[in-house]
Amino acid sequence: KVDGKVRIDMFYPAGFMDVVQIEKTKENFRLLYDTKKRFVLHKVVKEEASYKLCRVKKIHRGPKGIPYAITHDGRTLRYPDPDVKVN
Known about the structure:
3-stranded antiparallel beta sheet
C-alpha cells in the first residue's frame, strides 16, 4: 500500500513523505531524504503511518470567501485552521 491505498503496479511512483505499508510483514515506512538527497525508508509505527504529512504551498480564498490551502502533493484542504501558514 502507498498512502493507505493498494497499488497493483509495482512501478507506481512513490514520493517524499509517502507512507509505504507492507501487509505480509506488517511494517510501515515513510519515504524521506538522506543528507545526499537520496530516498531512504524510515520505519514508523502504525499510529504514525495513519496520517500524511503535507507542506502548505499556497493559501487562497475561493468563491464566497471560502479559504483553502494547497499542499505540496496537490491536495486541496477547504477551511484550514487559521493558524496554518505557508511552509
